[in-house]
Amino acid sequence: MELSAWIQLMIGIPLIGFIVSLLVPEKKENLLSKVAFYTAGLNLVSIFIFLIFWGINGFQTLNLEEYVLYKNPNFEFLIDFFFDRIGAVYIVVGSLLTFLITFYSRYYLHREPGYKRFFNTILFFYLGFTITVLAGNFETLFIGWEVLGISSFLLVAFYRNNYLPTRNAVRVFSIYRIGDVGMILAMWASHHLWHGNVTFINLENSELVHEHLAGHAGLGLFISLMLLLAAAAKSAQFPFSSWLPRAMEGPTPSSAIFYGSLSVHLGVFLLLRTFPFWEDQITVRIIIALIGLTTAILSTMIARVQTSVKTQIGYSSLTQIGIMFIEVAAGLETLAMIHFAGNAFLRTYQLLVSPSIVSYLIREQFYGFNPQKKNIKSGFTSRLILSFYIWSLKEWNLDKLINRIVFRPLKNLGHRLDFLSYKSVLYYFIPSYILGLSLLVAEIKIPENIRIYLPTIFGFIALLMVLKAFSERNSARLSWILLILNHFWMVLAIAENELFAWPQVAIYLSGVIFFGVSGLLIIDWLKRQTGQHGLHHYKGYVAKYPIVAFLFLVSALGLMGFPLSPTFLGEDLLFSHIHEDQILLAAIAALTFVMEGIVTIRILARLFMGSQIDQEISALSSEELALKKKQLFNSKDLATKAIK
């Protein structure tokens, strides 16, 4: 077997293991754990054998062009795989830790109601991680990137009948999607810079990189900054650090493999993989180092005041990842990879033993606690330390910062779009769309001074529909319909911008129509069964309708352009028709697709996850909650007296 072909085996084993795990009945815990354990173990053995032959052949860089999914004279969607020493370090560490986690989890989660879901999701994550690490171009990497995002959501929301894990899972996924804006725009700009599908092996050619960047320094800087945005969001770097403690709501093994060892280090991997592209851009290197330094300082202070051991370990890991950002910016590639491996193993160990350590410390504190007297000192230094302490307790308000800068303005804008009702959609937007489509089909020439603005206007209408769906709480059906219509408006925008062939339109909209209609049918069915159709509370219907919840998850993934849908390919086709100078249109399209993913997951979470009781309790003020507790204690006292 050729070495390049061995890469197929590294991806094939996790894929087969994941599919087999889906077919195993939920009650057969032993078989489920064995499938996951032997999948990770077999892949680990195959990787070690591969590394031996790879070393014998001189550690040569390998590139495997798998196959072309779609090709036309101006566009090519190529699945490509790539292997070098960066990929070797990440794939070995990832496979070894996944193997250890599957062994640990088979006993840790014994008799847990979500036993099957956990191992399904872990294998799905392992597949996404392998694809990401072995990807040979941005398109292939983005497939794995998306798999990791949805795996993260499912693992954080593992206790899906509880309100807090569900809410935090949506929060984590939303931050991930912010990073996806950077990845999508970097892919779009790369197509224009390279005039085709660039592979990572091309980036190894410094002469070729300099040739394409000559005269396009601004475009190169834009690509580098977008990649940095994606890396910072994925690795919880400043200012996105606040999502990490919220991600610890899942089981301890998932916290260890995701937010202690593997997923949280993928931002470093992205920077390492693209380092040859931006290594001569001093401005980018300074920004990366400053972000890493800021994260390291803030995370150190926050970690020292945490009361939860898991969040303390998480923030400690962020400190080390911030230092890794500095190392990558300084060009210390080997040091960064050694640092990654050491930090990944250490944090995994710490998280796995943390329950035992906490139990031991509680026992020691109970039997041998001696309070120490401390003198309160006055002065500028003491006040400064106290201020840092309070700010660290508040986690430097990073969560509020993201809310204020990103989500609140989008939600406020959505609330101003109340005119987007069933009536306005039916009477105004659908007829307007039909008119625009008719003019396009009839090839009626529109004056150039008007036509030049139409793509941006149509794209902005699509964005407004998504924002309205984002803020809509009265009707899940209306929110879902707006998500479907935004795709049609986006197609019209691109068709007005440049020739968008009808076969390409069919590829793009086939997934939208199929998954959009299936999701709409499920929402209508759920309304008939329960009589509820709003999104004000988390309904938790997954407990009553688990199969329906799974089908709606598939519909949501298909509508948002997950790799299982042809819409994923169609989105890349769509961006290939946005010109290099149309940054505004590209930004609108990227934001539309990213926000649509957030909205679909929110609809899924509010309809099928969480618990309405938990939601009502969390909505109570402190005074109301105290009153409820007082009433509960009074009722307990009365019951005790009655028994006596």
What does this protein look like?
This protein is mainly α and 644 residues long. The protein has two domains: 3-362, no CATH class; 416-610, no CATH class. It contains 28 helices and two strands. The protein has helices at residues 3-23, 29-56, 85-108, 115-134, 138-156, 163-194, 200-203, 206-213, 217-234, 243-246, 252-261, 266-273, 275-278, 282-303, 309-329, 333-368, 380-393, 398-415, 422-441, 448-451, 454-471, 476-497, 502-530, 546-559, 566-575, 583-608, 612-619, 622-643; strands spanning 62-72, 75-83. Strands 1-2 form a two-stranded antiparallel sheet. Helix 14 (282-303) runs antiparallel to helix 15. Mean pLDDT is 83; it is low at 614-622 and 635-644.
